[in-house]
Design a protein that fits this description.
The complex is a heterodimer of chains A (220) and B (353). Chain A is of the alpha/beta class and 220 residues long. In chain A, 38% of the residues lie in helices and 16% in strands. Chain A has one domain: Rossmann fold. In chain B, helix 1 runs parallel beside helix 11. The chains are: A alpha/beta (220), B alpha/beta (353). Chain A: One of its GO terms (molecular function) is oxidoreductase activity.
């Protein structure tokens, strides 16, 4: 990969979010690899039909991509392979949404953001939280070219500056402005039930919203 | 791709508890009686299908599709009745099968179906004492048992699995009149679910509650190709579609009739799920083609159903318009118009293709 741009995107999960992201990433010109817990051969037809242009691979191969997107149900995060993801830049697009997915102790009993819990589990991965606050319908419908005044923006949060730069570039190529919300813990400002999570915002609006909740995030 | 050239038209409901003038809920028993009356009405006016969706909330109280469908089986003559869906992950597949086979016996045979689903929310897990960590395992195991019961040709069944003790050659009765019941797989549209239903050779029912329904075309294609690859062909490989929708004499009336209930539903869901207050604009953005709400006059709804059929090739399209306290007379009028005005238009438009 060049120093500024990713060329390969690995997506773990072939549900609605994972496949929508895969199509959008193919459209943006990336080499996209999709894996689930099933063998690659079992996903080949799915990938051919639902995300043409992407490739079905084993999860270890998806993990060996410039950027790896976690698009599985959050409560299955312990099924992720720690050694495959060691040293990788991982975009956590997952959410804890108890009213929909149910109550899980891992997140109820932990005051940190879910992405911090995931990062701790993955140990050596560089986790960037993003793409969790746009609907899978919207991801393929709301994209606009860079420079458009009304362009929708997406927030990202992480502790590794280089990882964040690559993810910001990825978000831009998907058709959205990227707004850096701060360290991984700042992802609290765009978790479920927040104004950012439930709405659609331009970069200026997003910056203002992030600043508004920043004292709360810092105090948490 | 094989496309059906006829389309069954139907409705489905989770039960719809009426509201008092102050917004408070009226009785859930009344909602069940209203639903029963609506099914009987749908049968009389000639609707093809009515689905009862298992739900366990005060506003949507149709918790027991098997009981309601057995009652409806006795009071109807021609309509196909099914669950839409039965949450089998947290139910006992033996009981589900027996209840629907009982309804089948009462119906005279051939009108009763089961649609197996996971449910769009997880309230049945605490209610019936199941662990959400077993979500996938429970669904897979219980579906396997349900299919075994259905595919067994004798009255004695043998099964073993991981989520309950084995069944060693025990009687499971009654048997369906035609030997087995149609069993559908319900999905909100995940690709792996479509592929799995195809590999199992089961009919698939898509619940499309937002976005643009024609975007489900690749999923229906994946379903059919997965079935073909696994060697499944024939009548059991078919697609049905469930969407929001309501029919009224004019589009304007339909849009206005469904709106208050839509607001109530979204306020309630929003309170639970942290959504913002619903905007009228986001409702209106979804009531016209190619969006997801099939709300309109008979011409509009028929044209949109046929347009979607061009993408999905589905053999049944059924609508839910009763939520958030839709007045019963509006539901009944919609069912009448679906059967007497939409269906003939759909037939005509399909024949002209």
């Amino acid at each position: 990969m060049s120093s500024q741009q990713a060329t390969t995107i690995g997506i773990l999960g072939a549900g609605r979010a994972g496949t929508a992201l895969a199509r959008q990433a193919v459209k943006a010109g990336y080499q996209v690899r999709i894996a689930t817990t099933a063998p690659a051969a079992e996903n080949a037809l799915l990938v051919d039909i639902v995300t043409p242009g992407a490739v079905a691979v084993e999860s270890s191969q998806a993990a060996a991509s410039d950027l790896v997107v976690l698009a599985i149900p959050l409560h299955k995060y312990r099924t992720l392979n720690q050694s495959d993801l060691a040293g990788r830049i991982v975009i956590d697009a997952m959410n804890y949404w108890a009213p929909v997915d149910g109550v899980f102790d891992d997140f109820e009993s932990d005051s940190r953001t879910t992405s911090e819990v995931v990062e701790e589990f993955l140990r050596d991965a560089r986790v960037v939280k993003s793409l969790n606050h746009i609907g899978y319908h919207e991801l393929e419908e709301d994209d606009q070219p860079a420079g458009t005044a009304t362009r929708r923006a997406l927030a990202l949060a992480g502790d590794d500056a280089r990882a964040k730069a690559l993810v910001a570039n990825f978000i831009d190529r998907l058709g959205y402005d990227a707004v850096d919300a701060g360290p991984l813990a700042a992802g609290r400002s765009f978790q479920p039930a927040t104004e950012i999570f439930t709405g659609s915002h331009t970069a200026n609006q997003l910056v203002a919203l992030i600043q508004k909740v920043r004292p709360l995030v810092d105090a948490a | 791709m094989h496309m059906e050239n006829t389309l069954e038209i139907g409705a489905y409901s989770f039960g719809d508890t009426q509201r008092g003038p102050d917004g408070s809920s009226r009785s859930t028993a009344e909602a069940i009686k209203n639903l029963f009356d609506a099914i009987v009405h749908a049968d009389r006016v000639g609707l093809d299908y009515f689905g009862v969706g298992e739900h366990h909330t005060v506003s949507m109280p149709a918790s027991s599709p098997g009981a309601l469908i057995a009652a409806a089986a006795a009071a109807t003559t021609q309509i196909t009745l099914g669950s839409a869906a039965s949450i089998i992950s947290t139910d006992d597949p033996v009981r589900v099968f027996q209840q629907f086979a009982t309804a089948d016996a009462i119906s005279g045979g051939g009108r009763i179906e089961i649609t197996a689903g996971r449910g769009s929310s997880v309230e049945t897990f605490p209610l019936f004492g199941f662990d959400l960590n077993d979500y996938d395992e429970l669904y897979a195991q219980k579906l396997d048992l349900l299919l075994t019961l259905n595919n067994t040709t004798t009255e004695h069944v043998t099964w073993s699995g991981r989520t309950r003790p084995p069944i060693p050659d025990l009687a499971v009765v009654p048997r369906p009149i035609n030997g087995s019941l149609p069993i559908w797989i319900a999905t909100g549209g995940s690709a792996p679910s479509s592929a799995r239903a195809g590999r199992l050779g089961l009919p698939i029912s898509y619940g499309i509650i937002g976005g643009q329904p024609h975007r489900f075309a690749p999923l229906a294609n994946l379903y059919r190709q997965s079935a073909a690859q696994a060697g499944h062909t024939g009548d059991n490989i078919k697609v049905s579609v469930a969407t929001f929708g309501l029919v009224a004499p004019t589009k304007k009336e339909a849009v206005e009739r469904m709106y208050p209930g839509w607001v109530n539903l979204n306020v309630e869901m929003g309170r639970l799920r942290g959504w913002p207050v619903p905007q009228r604009s986001s409702y209106l953005a979804q009531v016209d083609a190619p969006s997801a709400y099939f709300v309109g006059d008979p011409d509009d709804v028929a044209e949109r159903i046929v347009a979607l059929h061009g993408h999905l090739g589905h053999m049944r399209h059924f609508l839910q318009g009763d939520h958030g306290g839709l007045p019963q007379e509006h539901l009944l009028e919609s069912l009448t118009l679906l059967a007497t005005e939409v269906k003939p238009r759909v037939d005509r438009l399909l024949a002209a293709k």
